[in-house]
Design a protein that fits this description.
It is a single chain. This protein is mostly helical. It has a single domain, classed as Ribosomal protein S20 (Methane Monooxygenase Hydroxylase, Chain G, domain 1, Up-down Bundle).
Length: 87
């Protein structure tokens, strides 16, 4: 347990940040699933629309440090390839 005032504050901040990161990751996973379901149903319109919401969400999460920059880039690239493969 923290005994210094600064350590107690750091614990409070860590808890807030952890909850925020978990919520952001969950939202990203949900949006990614919507793209994948669009691709699996072979519906180009739905998957493109979903991809347009995923890309900014991943970029924002990367800029905030929720996920790594290259992780976001990799996910965007792979999802884009899947959507472009749909005919």
């Amino acid at each position: 347990m923290a005994t210094h005032k600064s350590a107690e504050k750091r614990n409070r901040q860590d808890k807030k940040h952890r909850e925020r990161n978990i919520a952001a990751k969950s939202a990203i996973k949900t949006k990614i699933k919507s793209v994948i379901t669009g691709v699996e149903s072979k519906n180009k319109e739905i998957s493109v629309k979903a991809l347009k919401t995923v890309i900014p969400a991943l970029a924002k999460a990367a800029s905030k440090g929720v996920i790594h920059k290259k992780n976001a880039s990799r996910k965007i690239s792979r999802l884009t390839k899947k959507v472009n493969a749909v005919k």
